[in-house]
Design goal:
The complex is a heterodimer of chains A (503) and B (862).
Chain A lengths: L5 H17 L4 H10 L8 H8 L9 E7 L5 H4 L16 H4 L23 E4 L6 E4 L3 H4 L5 E8 L5 H10 L9 H9 L9 E6 L25 E2 L18 H22 L2 H24 L6 H7 L9 H13 L4 E6 L8 H25 L6 E6 L3 E2 L16 E2 L3 E7 L6 E3 L1 E2 L6 E2 L20 E2 H11 L9 E3 L2 E3 L15
Parallel strand pairs in A: 1-7, 1-8, 4-12, 4-15, 5-6, 5-7
Antiparallel strand pairs in A: 2-3, 4-11, 8-11, 9-10, 13-14, 16-17
Helix pairs in contact in A: 1-2, 1-10, 2-8, 9-10, 12-13
Chain B lengths: L2 H9 L2 H9 L9 H12 L33 H17 L14 H4 L2 E2 L2 E2 L10 H7 L16 H12 L26 H15 L10 H13 L5 H9 L5 H11 L1 H14 L17 H12 L4 H10 L8 H6 L16 H21 L5 H4 L9 H11 L17 E4 L3 H25 L8 H8 L2 H9 L9 H18 L2 E4 L12 E2 L7 E2 L22 H9 L6 H14 L20 H13 L4 H9 L2 H4 L22 E2 L2 H11 L58 H4 L19 H9 L1 H17 L3 H13 L5 H19 L2 H8 L12 H16 L1 H4 E2 L1
The chains are: A alpha/beta (503), B mainly alpha (862).
């Protein structure tokens, strides 16, 4: 096809470089080469790069992030506080709140009555001292031996928009790249027939939060690292299907003509970008086959649906998203995120959380078990959590049966499992009110994110993100992108990898 | 007191020096290197504690022309050395120096101080400079062995030469006001030849010549796309191609500059920069009334409002004497920051956050500089102290709106303004008639020569509206005049026009300003120190004398002749949208960490010319697009290895922006609705995209697609929901408009291919384009000619014609035997198909059209 001359060689090399820089395949290595010197390109092929990680050996090949938007109540799900029962309705002791700022929603409330959980907790065996799990999560309780439950996650933001933006982008103000786009930027894809970063929105009966495309957006990173929505309505990937009356064969004919036109353009202008685009049209054509194959659940057997529940047959349910996540993982998608809304239980918490837990509980457990039976759990990092927790005191009127809880940033529960994570442990603890992170003796602590020091037993959201990157072979301090003269990173100026969690 | 110190004190008011010294806060970046470094420096017993050293970049403005007796090339401090110091040294040895005993390398004065018999730079005995020793030291190297950023061999060599040549400092180029410095041999060049003189000089330095000119068809398409965002109208194109007289191209360019499409296209770049959106942007992301601002921008650019006024009105139109409606609407700029009313959000926190956003956007848009660092600590690289940041913030801290938007469309203060551009035009005419009438009426008040009557006093104190009421007053003193009748009639017309007005957010100041204080570490609840006066960045000139200490004074500072950055930053972005890449390739950063201009003297010449031309945008664009540089063929050259086209040895080429890609299809199909302005329109969008994200209480949770002509408006007018912009926009790199964007990425993805070939609107428009081809031309050759004339401004090449003919043949055969498929394809979109046309043939042509529309023939600027 191409005559042999040095300029052509130069152009083609350039084209390859541009392709590596701009398409999914090998993008990580491209980012690496730009940022850290070309020696990293020595990693042999894709798989080599995966094992090698970007900066160090990766413990996980991929990540599935189950994001519970709105702030699940750690009090009612994970953080068992039997001593609160005796305090029912009494004022939260001042030394516990300790000047903590509270949101405008409860700031005007005359009292802050202690609100113990109405739910029964059972101690599940794990690989350490066991973990208490609420009756709202019966399925998740069965995988306790795989979970690393962190009771001491914290943030500074106290409202949804800033808090969710903070945990997903490292900044409370919009404009920074999301966690997922950093991963895409750093690692690229293992399957160029599918997007490298896939986002799903699971249905919820109480979808009372907003999500924002910035949560999977790229900020100032090149926009091809943005999360691709895998949707349950219409085309699973936007604009995937040919228009009515256009068959796959028609498209083939059309793409051949398109390539010929672009070749002609290239002959006139020799712009390597043109060749790169020809390749993208071909990838799109392949994606038109690979996505329907991905979404076709007829290959799944009854055992799968026993695991995930019949709900998984309904597109868009959390269970269906979890099943999709496993199927995406199998196909080499590295970076998968499921957003489930409706955890913002200011009032009527029992009714709402019961429904929310019903949405997610079986899917979470099934995903862990399913990854395990496919031999993929040890290379897949699974994360479950929200942007903050909920208060120990009641918002609105308090009865034994019904109550609400406001936003609480100072202490909440997140769990992780799989790739590189110590299975079956708990980490950190809260005080008797589930209000503050506490030391081993139960005394409240006031950790602060700092670039120099880190308080053992605590996990700031920057620490969580640093640890996620670390498990995927990335040094969070070195995955940077220069914008406006500054080398930005996901963890801003903070973040500590929590070695205690790492297997 | 030594000379450097004296000069320092003369140039920087004491306050500033103290600020800088006070503003010692932890730095942005974690660096083990720094700690290490500090320790080492202590070991060296270098102890510099004097406050005056905490000063911005550089003080001795001596250009480095010293002859080097080693026969080495003299280094250029500003362009070669300072970027290295900034990137590799200033983290520890820079303006935000944390500990007082750390050596500072950001000024000559600091770097040459003698400590214990050593000087980092010893100008008298350069060989003895400690800097040089440490640069080459293996046991105590600088940067330390574990520093994140190490020097390259080239950088070491440059630093070595710099020290040996005396280690002189000059000010960072971007902080020195630009001057016109024409290249050698260009003394006879006219203004129109200056761009080429600069570019040609650099090419000559590389022993290169300009590329041959692009053919006229290609050039016409290029100029039209650059100026108006659309290909040239076939008639205009034919006229240009047939015009063999001198100046044909210049006349063609003038037609484009006069087109109303010009302002629509140019406005887009500004709206990205100021983060224009039709929604509040946070939490519920509800609708907000602001589109009259967008329409004002379009008109200001079409009318070629001088760019200094363009800036002044936006920052401070409300503070001008007797501001016009347009001047007040322009202040929507100040209100563009995303806002929230999330339940539980703390007003004081968002008062601070809204202000941060404004200060930082001001930095990006006008100063080409990040201010963000200085929110929490003095800037590490650039001469911006934390106190200055908060002084700048004080300009915005007293605007009248509440920090919570109440989720309201009418988030006050608001005004009522014309609801589209036709209404604006009508309004301007009414204002003009009113002003004429009032001018005619005024003399009738004056009865005596030297005594001012009460009526006159009242008149002179009144605004235009009240004056008109005085003339129209049935009990007033004008009742005998014809003017009185005219005033009544005009009042009626004005009232009619005002009935159609719509809400727009504007800026106003509180009667009693809010107090602004320094916020420790940028925490809203940690204000410290005395109240701060509004103030500017002292590294960029002085606050203009006689200007009020409010947003108007701020605008006067920015647009002042002495401001080193604003004109450069603006002209750089104008160049970027004309040539595809900017002269400073980091248009968002002109600071020490930014890239050097590819053509520094050209940038400066253009910046000064922008001032000299009275901020005439159209003049500047005319200079650019009529230059030989712009007219070059954009084919990649075999004799030039310059993939990024830094030398400008070929014409511009790049993929077009999202809006242009969509607009070309609208325009080529003949369905582009020319109506300008008005509320954002909602074309086809896949179902459920908004509802999957939005809070049930949000009034943007349901996307209700528009009907009829609104489907076919220019993309500039597509409704911009900031938390979920239209996917055909974001797919092709449009920003979310939550934060300022002065440079879009240009990606190339498989998802774009899917959008180009499958999206409902593109399928529909391709069919409409096919209908046009079938109607307007009567055989295949002519139809292909028309298709290519529309999309490429030229006839197809033989190869292109062959490819199209073959595809067409195969599609015709396919659809001839599958009428249902043809009809299904032709039913895509709201517009009915032309039933007079044969469905099989129309289907074949429509698939051909969508293919050519998706090809690089149509998708690229070249």
């Amino acid at each position: 096809m191409n005559e042999s001359n040095p300029l052509r060689e130069y152009e083609l090399n350039l084209t390859r470089r541009q392709l590596f820089g701009r398409t999914a395949l090998g993008l990580g290595t491209a980012a690496m080469a730009n940022l850290f010197g070309s020696d990293l390109l020595a990693a042999d092929g894709n798989d080599g790069a995966v094992k090698a990680g970007l900066h160090h050996a990766a413990k996980a090949k991929r990540v599935i992030y189950l994001f519970m938007s709105g702030g699940p109540s750690h009090h009612d799900l994970w953080d068992y506080k039997p001593k609160m029962q005796a305090m029912f309705g009494k004022e939260l002791p001042e030394h516990i709140r300790d000047g903590q700022r509270i949101t405008g929603m409860t700031a005007g409330q005359k009292t802050l009555p202690v609100c113990p959980s109405k739910y029964k907790f059972t101690k599940q065996e794990n690989n350490d001292k066991g973990v208490w799990v609420s009756e709202l999560l019966p399925h998740t309780a069965t995988v306790a031996k795989d979970l690393c439950v962190v009771h001491s996650t914290y943030t500074e933001a106290i409202n949804h928009d800033p808090a969710v933006t903070y945990i997903q982008t490292g900044s409370q103000i919009p404009g920074r790249p999301s966690l997922g786009s950093w991963l895409s930027y750093g690692l690229g894809s293992m399957n160029e027939n599918l997007p490298s970063y896939v986002v799903m929105h699971a249905k919820s009966r109480h979808a009372e939060q907003s999500l924002f495309s910035r949560l999977w957006g790229t900020g100032f990173l090149p926009s091809d690292h943005q999360g691709v929505l895998l949707r349950s309505q219409g085309d699973p990937v936007l604009y995937l299907s040919n228009p009515a009356g256009v068959t796959r064969k028609d498209r083939r004919t059309q793409l051949d003509a398109l390539a010929a036109l672009n070749q002609e353009q290239h002959k006139r202008f020799a712009d390597p970008e043109v060749l790169a685009r020809i390749k993208q049209h071909e990838l799109a054509y392949r994606m038109q086959a690979s996505v329907p194959e991905l979404m076709d659940l007829s290959q799944e057997n009854d055992e799968t649906f026993k695991l995930y529940g019949e709900e998984a047959r309904k597109p868009g349910t959390f269970a269906a998203c979890c099943l999709n996540a496993r199927r995406l993982a199998e196909r080499g998608v590295r970076n998968i995120q499921i957003f489930h809304r409706g955890w913002d239980a200011h009032g009527g918490l029992p009714r709402e959380h019961e429904s929310q837990c019903k949405d997610v509980d079986q899917g979470c457990a099934a995903l862990i078990k399913d990854l395990k039976r496919h031999g993929m759990l040890d290379e897949t990092l699974v994360i479950w959590g929200g942007e903050f927790g909920r208060t120990a005191y009641c918002q609105g009127s308090l009865t034994k049966e019904n109550y609400g809880r406001d936003h609480h940033p100072r202490c909440f529960t997140t769990w992780m499992a799989g790739g590189g994570i110590k299975p079956g442990i708990t980490y950190g603890q809260s005080d008797d009110y589930g209000y503050n992170i506490a030391d081993a003796d139960g005394n409240p602590m006031r950790p602060k994110p700092s670039r120099e020091s880190w308080t053992p037993g605590t996990m700031h959201i920057h620490d969580l993100n640093a640890t996620i990157l670390h498990l995927l072979g990335i040094d969070h301090k070195r995955l940077t992108h220069r914008y406006q003269g500054r080398d930005f990173r996901l963890t801003d100026v903070n973040g500590h990898v929590i070695d205690d969690l790492i297997a | 007191m030594n000379g450097a110190r004296r000069e320092l004190n003369a140039r920087y008011p004491a306050g500033m020096l103290n600020d800088a010294a006070d503003a010692v806060f932890p730095m942005t970046k974690v660096s083990t290197a720094r700690r290490q470094d500090t320790k080492e420096m202590r070991r060296m017993k270098i102890s510099i504690t004097t406050a005056y050293l905490a000063i911005v970049v550089a003080l001795v403005s001596v250009p480095v022309h010293a002859a080097d007796d080693r026969g080495e090339l003299p280094v250029d401090f500003a362009h070669e050395i300072l970027p290295i110091l900034s990137d590799k040294c200033f983290v520890c040895h820079g303006p935000a120096g944390e500990a007082k005993d750390v050596l500072r390398l950001d000024s000559f004065a600091a770097a040459t101080v003698e400590i214990d018999g050593h000087r980092a730079i010893d100008p008298k005995n350069p060989e003895k400079s400690e800097f040089l020793k440490r640069l080459n030291s293996s046991d105590e190297p600088m940067p330390p062995a574990d520093a994140e950023k190490q020097l390259t061999a080239r950088e070491r060599d440059l630093l070595r030469r710099w020290i040996l040549q005396g280690g002189k400092y000059t000010t960072h180029w971007a902080f020195v006001a630009p001057q016109k410095m024409p290249p050698a041999g260009s003394s006879n060049a006219t203004k129109n030849e200056m761009i080429d003189a600069f570019v040609g000089a650099r090419l000559q330095g590389q022993k290169l010549a300009f590329a041959p000119a692009a053919d006229r068809e290609t050039l016409a398409r290029r100029a039209s796309l650059v100026l108006t965002g659309l290909p040239p109208e076939p008639k205009l194109l034919s006229a240009f191609l047939a015009d063999n007289r001198d100046g044909a191209y210049e006349r063609f360019v003038d037609v484009l500059l006069d087109s109303p499409r010009f302002g629509e296209h140019q406005a887009r770049y500004w709206l990205d920069a100021v983060r224009y959106g039709d929604t509040h942007g946070l939490h519920l992301d509800n609708r907000r009334g602001i589109f009259p601002y967008r329409d004002w921008v379009v008109q200001a650019l079409n009318k070629n409002l001088p760019l200094d006024d363009f800036i002044i009105w936006q920052l401070a139109g409300d503070l001008l004497p007797n501001p016009t409606l347009a001047q007040r609407v322009a202040t929507g700029f100040v209100r563009m920051n995303p806002t929230t009313a999330e339940g539980g959000a703390i007003p004081a926190e968002f008062q601070a956050k809204n202000n941060f956003d404004r200060v930082e956007t001001l930095g990006t848009v006008f100063l080409g500089m990040s201010m963000t660092c200085a929110r929490c600590h003095s800037h590490k690289y650039d001469p911006i102290s934390q106190t200055e940041y908060y002084r700048l913030m004080a300009f915005f801290n007293s605007t009248a709106e509440h920090s919570m938007d109440g989720n309201k469309y009418e988030y006050g203060p608001v005004l009522k303004a014309p609801a589209n551009i036709a209404a604006w035009k009508q309004w301007s005419e009414l204002e003009l008639s009113r002003d004429k009438l009032l001018a005619a009426a005024r003399p009738h008040l004056k009865k005596l020569d030297d005594v001012e009557l009460p009526e006159e006093k009242k008149w002179d104190a009144a605004n235009a509206k009240d004056r008109l009421a005085m003339v129209a007053d049935p009990k007033g003193q004008f009742i005998t005049l014809e003017l009185h009748k005219q005033a009544i009639e005009l009042t009626g017309r004005i009232e009619m026009a005002e009935k159609g007005f719509t809400t727009t957010l504007v800026a106003e100041d509180l009667a009693k300003p809010r107090t602004t204080r320094f916020l420790t570490r940028g925490e809203y609840n940690q204000p410290t120190g005395d109240p701060l006066e509004p103030g500017i960045l002292t590294a960029m000139g002085a606050f203009p004398k006689d200007s009020p200490r409010n947003r108007l004074g701020l605008a006067n500072w920015l647009t002042g002749r002495e401001h080193p950055l604003v004109a450069r930053v603006l002209i750089n972005r104008i160049w970027q949208r004309t040539f595809g890449n900017a002269l400073v390739r980091t248009p968002e950063d002109f600071g020490l960490q930014g890239q050097q201009p590819t053509h520094p003297a050209l940038l400066d010449w253009l910046a000064v010319e922008l001032h000299d031309s009275n901020w005439d945008l159209k003049h500047m664009l005319r200079l650019m697009v009529t230059s030989r540089t712009f007219r070059q063929s954009s084919a990649w050259r075999k004799d030039v290895a310059d993939p990024e086209n830094q030398l400008l040895a070929r014409g511009p080429s790049h993929r077009l922006d999202a809006e242009v890609i969509r607009d070309i299809a609208l325009w080529a199909s003949g369905s582009l609705d020319p109506q300008m302005g008005g509320e954002g329109v909602k074309p086809y969008q896949p179902g459920g995209l908004w509802s999957a994200l939005m809070h049930p209480a949000s009034n943007t949770k349901n996307y209700v697609q528009d009907k009829g002509t609104k489907l076919y408006r220019r993309s500039l007018y597509v409704y911009w929901k900031r938390t979920s912009p239209h996917p055909m926009m974001t797919l092709f790199d449009a920003p979310s408009r939550e934060s300022s964007c002065v440079r879009r990425s240009r990606t190339n993805t498989s998802l774009q291919s899917l959008g180009l070939l499958n999206e409902v609107q593109r399928v529909e428009l391709s069919r409409m384009l096919a209908e046009r081809l079938l109607r307007e031309a009567d055989n295949e050759t002519k139809r292909l000619d028309l298709l290519f004339k529309l999309l490429a401004s030229r006839k197809p090449t033989a190869r292109e014609r062959a490819v199209c003919t073959k595809l067409l043949q195969s599609l015709k055969e396919r659809y001839a035997t599958a009428e249902n498929d043809a009809l299904a394809l032709l039913s895509t979109g709201d517009a009915p198909r032309d039933e007079k046309l044969n469905p099989g043939e129309l289907a074949a042509w429509s698939q051909l059209a969508i293919t050519v529309l998706a090809s690089d023939v149509a998708l690229l600027l070249y």
